[in-house]
Input
Amino acid sequence: MSEFLVGLDQNHGNVTDLQEFTDETAAFDRISALYDENVEKIKSRFAEFEAGDRTSPAGPAYYPYLGLTVESTDINRTGKRSYGKIDAAGTFGATLTQPKLFESYYKEQIRLILKNHQRPVYVGLSDRPMPLPFVIESASSDVSANDIPALQAIFTMPDLANINDSIANGTYVPVEGIPRPLALFTAERVDYSLARLSHYTGTIPEHFQRFVLFTNYQRYVDEFVDYGKKQVLEGSEYSAFVEPGNVITPNPNLTDEPVSGIAPSHLPQMPAYHLVGEKHMGITLVNIGVGPSNAKTITDHIAVLRPHCWLMVGHCGGLRHTQRLGDFVLAHAYVREDHVLDEDIHPSVPLPAIAEIQVALTEAVARAADVSSGGSDIKEHFRTGTVYTTDDRDWELRHKELAVRFNQSRAIAVDMESATIAANGFRFRVPYGTFLCVSDKPIHGEIKLPGMANKFYEGRTAKHLHIGIDTLQQLRLRGVESLHSRKLRSFDEPAFR
Output
């Protein structure tokens, strides 16, 4: 049930057309209707623009708004869940976007805040206009360079001054008369990243799953493609396998739909592959290549999809004499010498290990090795400790300097991505983990020769990747609620996960 509210004095700022809801489905339906109505305004005016109307201004089109007001008597300080609740009195709100993509997520968050605070939520139109590029794909238009000035004069364009990560970074300063944040990301920030995901990965956001693997080596991709297609063609758990170009291989046991999509002539910068599960609960793998810059870029954007977990499964240099090529490394801590996130999360901020992921990884190794996860035999299969992440691919040329740092940090492995992925997981409240494979030991004079490398990769890549897949599947089966640890949330958190 909903009721149109006139003169509501609850400090929701410049929001209009507010309606009250006590049911998450009804609230979501109103959000979806408002979004569709305003998107249609932009699409209709853009069609007129393409037909030749270069003068009439576009009518206003705004993002939907969701908010609520919590009194001090409504605060429920239960510790059972790290999200879905507000710990201080006040008015809170968020702009929302792409409701079809986020349906299950939005409904869960609304249901939890209704349950925890016994207060209605309010849905209306915000004062944040929808930018044209976030509604109309550039590939669908025939706009020339000469039309750009007219386009910018008629339509709203992205306002970079208001698209940032201040909420997630903990630097947001509340403004009197404006609701405090209800979510980590504004609608514009979400749309910004959704557009980037298509560009960088070659697949649309709708295909991304909420369990994510990152790798820095193509052989893992080849193995994942083989595994994913086999799962789809022979099983019933996953509905499709998706590759760059939005090439979809449907599950023939679930549908008669043919393979669709066109593979790109050149792979994108960080190609993504998706083993599609119900409600986005399958597995996505992204080949991020080498280096912390790509690792930051892709996690900046995948974070808006609110994944339940992401894992790094890639190669590293071993730093201990006792390690052998092919040994596994489970990171318990990180040295952040990658520097790409220093302005967003200070290097002094510790990155706690997420216990549920560490345990799941250990148990997956034990299953793969057919040993007890609690016994001493498992120590023959992997090492736990600190991973040193650097931004210098030729760190070996600084051997004398770095050997001291390795000793002081007690690091057992060195790579170029793991700490970046963990730090952005911490920053964006996404549970994270790192499981690496020793591919060389340069500090000890052990390097891969071409023939030796092929033999090593053939024997270890598949096992390594399947341990990562097994870990994610077990985390899903056990339930995701416990994954979202209070370690990832501060004392002044938005209610949305």
Remarks:
- The mean pLDDT is 91.
- Residues 477 and 493 are 28 Å apart (CA to CA).
